[in-house]
Write a structure and sequence with these properties.
By secondary structure, the protein is of the alpha/beta class. About 20% of the residues lie in helices and about 25% in strands. It has four helices and nine strands. The chain has a nine-stranded mixed beta sheet with strand order 3-1-2-4-5-6-7-8-9. Helix 1 (about 65-80) crosses helix 2. The protein starts with a strand and ends with a helix. Bound molecules: S-adenosylmethionine (SAM), the ligand Nc1nc2[nH]cc(C(=O)O)c2c(=O)[nH]1, iron/sulfur cluster and magnesium ion.
Length: about 210
């Protein structure tokens, strides 16, 4: 399998339950809910995306022909530290490409594996930390995992629909964009009234890291 990767970089996980944790991010190219082209945004199934996942032109991006080649690059991006290795597979939609072979190769190199997914594609076995982020109007089939991170607000999506599902953590993430300040106020108010939910701030944007 050839993996199409937009970019690979070392940073701190900015969002959700693992915020603040050093991680290698592996951003796969492509998504099933949006082409990534601005002219298609208005007709896409997911219209609020904050990410460029088109092509393979980012830092350490490319088409990698073997799992070993990609896993070795992730290890090199982490650097020399032997312990607490952590990789976040994201995108785009990582579950279009992440397979058991890559999971095994990355585990062999001592990494704990997290995934950020839109929840429309079933995950392979072996993921250590699955964060799913449902999008209104889509067929959302990944209904269990470690973390549910709901971008808020989304028309036609009530957090109450989700709060009894088998996730360990429930996070509301204010939708970034023109209404970001109002969305943050609304998310704060929702958490205060519904303490099942915690507020996820995109801390990497606040502190100016990737
Ligand atoms: C860019 S997505 C990639 C992974 C996967 N496709 C997904 O949607 O979960 C990574 C995370 O950013 C969130 N996200 C995307 N656009 C956002 C926005 N405008 N404001 C807040 N969070 C956003 C997604 O919901 C997801 O939790
Ligand atoms: N620092 C940092 N944390 C993140 N958490 C989720 C991200 C993503 O784009 O999936 C992301 C990202 O792009 N950067
Ligand atoms: S599903 Fe994820 S990557 Fe795809 S367009 Fe939506 S937020 Fe962006
Ligand atoms: Mg991001």
């Amino acid at each position: 399998m050839t993996y199409s990767v937009k970019e690979i970089f070392l940073t701190l996980q900015g969002e959700g339950a693992q915020a603040g944790r050093p991680a290698v991010f592996c951003r796969f190219s492509g998504c099933n809910l949006w082409s990534g082209r601005e002219q298609d945004r208005g007709t896409a199934q997911c219209q609020f995306c904050d990410t460029d996942f088109v092509g393979t032109d980012g830092t350490l991006g490319g088409k990698y022909k073997t799992t070993a080649q990609l896993a070795d690059l992730l290890q090199a991006a982490w650097g020399g530290q032997e312990r607490h290795r952590f990789v976040v597979f994201t995108g785009g939609e990582p579950l279009l490409q992440l397979d058991e072979a890559l999971i095994a190769a990355v585990h062999e190199r001592g990494f704990e594996i997290a995934v950020e997914t839109n929840g429309t594609v079933l995950p392979p076995a072996g993921i250590d930390w699955l964060c799913t982020s449902p999008k209104a109007g889509t067929e959302w089939i990944v209904r269990q995992g470690q973390e549910l991170k709901l971008v808020f607000p989304q028309a036609g999506m009530d957090p109450a629909e989700f709060e009894d599902l088998p996730f360990d953590e429930f996070w509301l993430q204010p939708m970034d964009g023109p209404d970001q300040a109002a969305n943050t106020r609304a998310a704060i108010a929702y958490c205060l009234a519904h303490p099942r939910w915690r507020l996820s701030i995109q801390t990497h944007k606040l502190i100016g890291i990737r």
